Structure formats: C-alpha cells, structure tokens
Amino acid sequence: MGNSWFETVAHAQRRARRRLPKSVYAALLAGSEAGATYRDNTAAFGELGFAPHVADLSGERQTATTVLGQDVALPVVVSPTGVQAVHPDGEVAVARAAAARGVAMGLSSFASKPVEEVVAANPKTFFQMYWMGSKDSMVRAMDRARAAGAVGLIVTLDWSFSHGRDWGSPWIPEQLDLRAMAKLAPQALSRPAWLLEYARARSLPDLTTPNLARSDGTAPTFFGAYGEWMSTPPPSWDDIRWLRDEWQGPFLLKGISRVDDARRAVDAGVTAISVSNHGGNNLDTTPATIRMLPAVADAVGGEVEVLLDGGVRRGGDVVKALALGARAVLIGRAYLWGLAAAGQAGVENVLDIMAGGIDSALLGLGRSSIHELTPDDVVVPPGFTRAPADRAR
Ligand SMILES: Cc1cc2nc3c(=O)[nH]c(=O)nc-3n(C[C@H](O)[C@H](O)[C@H](O)COP(=O)(O)O)c2cc1C
Fold it and tell me: Quick check: 8 pLDDT over 90?
C-alpha cells in the first residue's frame, strides 16, 4: 500500500476531496436540504461514551458473525451505493476488497458494474433494489441477480426525492458525450491522478446502469433510470410482501426509522431490517439512526436481524451500535472515500480501520467477543434517543 495508507476515515475523506473532480466529490458527500440528518448521524455516535475496564481484560477478541445467513469476519457490511465515476474498477474493486477482508457487500441497482462481475469478485453479495418500474422489470432484475449468484436481496424504501441542498448540488451529465466532457474538463484537468487512472484503464466514467438492463439488453442511463423510479407509484406493504415472495431468499428491508414500520416489516416476512435514513440523503431532520436503534431493536430484535447504517466512521461506532442492539452495521461514505483515495487497497484500508477500532473497543470494554456486548458498555446521555411525538409524551 506504500504511502497511500491512511490511519482514519477522516484522512481518506480529505484524500478523496483532493483527488476527485469537484462534482464527483460533491455527489459522494450528498446529504439533503440543510444537512441536519447527515451531521447528526455522525455527531450522535460522538455523544455516546464508552465505559471501559482496566484489568481482567480479554487477550483474544472475536469479531465474526453471520448476516443474512452469510458467515462474515466483521459485523460490517458494505452498503449499496449507486455512485459512479469514483474509480474505473468501481464496485468490482469494492467487491475484491470486501472478499479479501471476509465481509459481505450490497450492490446497488444503480451501480456501474454488472452483478455477474461483482459476485465473481465477492460471492457474499446482496443485490439492492428500489421499488421502480413494472413488476415484470423488477422480476427480471431479481432473476438476473439470483442467476448471477447474489445471496440476498436488499430493498431500500427510504427515498422521497428531496433534491435540494443548501450547499448546492453538483452538475452531473446525462451521458459523457463531447459536450459534457468539455463542460467538465476544467475540474477533471485539475485532478490529474484521477484522470490518469481512467486513462490507464482506457475508459471513461460510465453513467449507465447495467443491472437495470431492459428485455432488449439495452441499459438505461443513470438519469433515465432515476426518472423511471420517480414516476413509479410508491409500494404498499402488500407490494413488499410480493417482492419478498418473488425473491424467496434472505431479504433485508433498508430504511426503517420507526418501531411501527419495523413491526410491519416483520409481518411482511423480512429476514432483516436496517435502521437507516439513507445516510442523511432523504428527509432532512430525521434523527440519527443510532438514536432510533434502541427502540427498534427492543421491539423486533428477537424476531429479525436488526442492522443499522448512517454515520459509521470508526470501529468504535460499530461497537456502540452492537451494544445498543444491532447485529451488524452497513457503511457507505467511509468505503467510498477509501475507494476514491486508493481503489481496492483504500477500501481494504477502511475495513482494517473498522476491524482495529472494534478490537480496541472490545479490549477496553473487557469483552472477548462482539456477541457479549450489552447496553452497559456504553454511556448514553439523558435525552439521547428519539421517538415520534406520540411516544415521546
Ligand atoms: C453517494 C451515495 C449513494 C448512495 N446510493 C445508494 C443506493 O443506490 N442504494 C441504497 O440502498 N443506498 C444508497 N445510499 C445509502 C447507503 O447505502 C447508506 O445507507 C448510507 O451511505 C449510510 O450512511 P453513511 O454514508 O454515513 O455510512 C447511498 C449513499 C451515498 C452517500
């Protein structure tokens, strides 16, 4: 890895910002409206404290677990992100890194690489879908993912098309044609290392969505697919049950923020849920996921796997989430910044940072395994958790 190694995710983020064209970096950072949820997701982990011991600590610490039936070395899953143009190897580099560290990954239906290539690089791949298009097209995408060997389905439901950002949204072209390249040239030319990587790969950032290919084999552009999604009527719980029945295998519903929805998801027959607000990219001012986790884990943790994503930047954050009832977490921006900073090695670097941080926290807490963590291991300040108004009274 040489001098591309970084010691924390914050370093990877700084490197990503220096290395990527401005609009690509802005697309990674994302967030919506005032960014209140985006900030709270991370800040809330900082409000939680640890309650460490100093003697009788454990010489060996165990971090392996299972997620959606897959054996994984860490309670950390690579979250699906439909982000393109970060690195020429894209999701395949991410899959190789995840496989090298023994972790599972979610592949976005908006990803830039075909599911077949990604599963070949990491057999522990879950395919992610939104409720979009016709039922026929959803069945086609699921059949293709299953045939490719995807071992689970992630259905993401927390998206309400809230696009404005107080700090401005990047301009992203429909296609990288000559006109778009001319417009993007000044920012791309100011990032020679990023350009060189694409030049070496003899490719251009690809803005199509191969996993949403139509029956005639053509794939829509990112924005073409997005438009189709926007014009699809939102699903009912019966639709979710239909999806679950069509898929048949392990099924993760991503985007839960409330106990009543968590219960409905259980009734719909899901295997797992993720307490998630799409990394602060959906309805702004939705509280941090870690504030909502305890109530959801309490309510349904005995019936389905409860995961969490949003704001995880350190191994210590993972341990806090597990102590408060999560089985595992998913990470988004952390690995995207690693990918931008150093490709596959950068994603491995981020997973190593997570592993090291989990190990340190277990050592300090006197735990020999992630399965021993309890709420007693963290100091929760008064007023930390959040619930809808009818419950908070
Ligand atoms: C740039 C970007 C693109 C994303 N695209 C998707 C996607 O295509 N599908 C999905 O389920 N979630 C998507 N997400 C949400 C992530 O899977 C995850 O929920 C979120 O990033 C977690 O928060 P974190 O970035 O703070 O770790 C995206 C997030 C980001 C930042």
Answer: yes
**180 exposed, middle or buried (CB, 10 Å; 0-12, 13-18, 19+)?**
middle
Tell me how far apart the alpha carbons of residues 61 and 107 are, in angstroms, rounded to a whole number: 30
The predicted-structure confidence for 317-371, as pLDDT tens digits, reads as follows 999 999 999 999 999 999 999 999 999 999 999 999 999 999 999 999 999 999 9
User: End-to-end alpha-carbon separation of the chain, Å?
Assistant: 53
280 contacts 310 by C-beta, under 8 angstroms: yes
Pocket mutation for ligand 1, best pick of 79, 94, 163, 317 (most atoms within 8 Å of C-beta): 79
Q: What angle do CA 335, 340, 346 make, to 5 degrees?
A: 55
Question: 275 in ligand 1 pocket by Cβ < 6 Å?
Answer: no
C-alpha to C-alpha distance for 288 and 226, rounded to whole angstroms: 26
How does DSSP classify residue 302? T
153, 161, 281, 353: residue to mutate for ligand 1 pocket, most atoms within 8 A of CB: 281
CA-CA distance, 379 to 365, in Å (whole number)? 12
Burial of residue 73 (CB within 10 Å: 0-12, 13-18, 19+) is middle
Q: What is the CA radius of gyration of the chain?
A: 20
* Strand-pair partners of 154: 128, 252
pLDDT digits (tens, 9 = 90+) for 252-291: 999 999 999 999 999 999 999 999 999 999 999 999 999 9
What is the predicted pLDDT for the residue at 17?
96
Q: Which residues are catalytic?
A: 278
Its pTM stands at 0.96
* pLDDT of 180: 79
How far is the CA of 292 from the CAs of 13, 40, 161, in angstroms?
A: 26, 12, 22
Residue type, 166: D
The mean pLDDT of the chain is 94
